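User: Fold this; tokens only.

Assistant: Input:
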Amino acid sequence: MRQVGTLPAEAAARRFAAWLLSQLIEAHAEQEHSGWVVWVREEDQLAKARVEYAHFRDHPDDPKYQGAEKSAEAVMREEAARRQQALGNVVEMRGRWSTGPLPGGRRQTPVVMALIGISVVVALLTWNDTMETSEASPPRGSVFRSLLFVDPADAHPSAGGEPRARIDMWGSVRRGEVWRFITPIFIHYGFMHIIFNVIMLFSFGTLVENRRGAAFMLLFVVVVAILSNVGQAIEATIRDQVQLFGGLSGVCYGLLGYVFTKSRFDAREQYFISPVTAVVALGWLVLCILAEFPAFRETLSDLSNTANTIHVVGLVTGAAIAYLPLALPASGRDQPPGN
């Protein structure tokens, strides 16, 4: 993946990407902070693409660019027919070239939208438990307690009136409340927590769900949520602490690990992650981990209550899900990605 150039308007960027595609240069447009960036897949086509970019930038109204989308659609149809003949598969064609397998296409992302919607609703229902910042400590609500990995009443050493030697993070699950393996992802503590997670989920989640589909995205979220929450519960058990952890950050770091790994080791799905985004996300994780060490605890005191195990397990799990197919026998590696 190589950057050709930046255009200020989406329509212009998509028209230019379509023109490149019509010239058999595989390209797509993505929105960045600086505008709409056009990328090409093959490095040996970069020089030609940049020559075309310079002309398009100076002459965007050149008649040869009219109908570029239709030309690109024709190229996509021809390529799909070629793949269908070579692979013996049925290739589903979309009505517009921009919704094909190339990045930049627009599709529905129901799983991402549902996760965001549920998180917002839970934030409203658990407002006094998670969003209220006053010093008063009202009794915890039933919705909040039912979504945690463990109900504090089941984990507390003095639960049931009889002291326990150690806390029990698994008491609620043992009673058959298995939804608790997943539901902590919907709990957020404060505005910044939910805003940061929603932005990160939308940025990476829509990218993955666009390419792999809702079924893959849903399974991905379930697997990452279970493993990261269980990992945090194991840490709490080892430390003998009742940890009321929550948030989508484990899933978000899982998506980060998935996209990062795909962008480095698998060019078929054409994932791209900005180096700045990767550095900021991983740098934040490192700071949160350092806050656990006595030497940094005072300096990074605001980060000392972060559920770092959730982040680390999510990151590793997402990277593993991305890399595992590449480590398997090569018999299906050249197949088009599932959508």
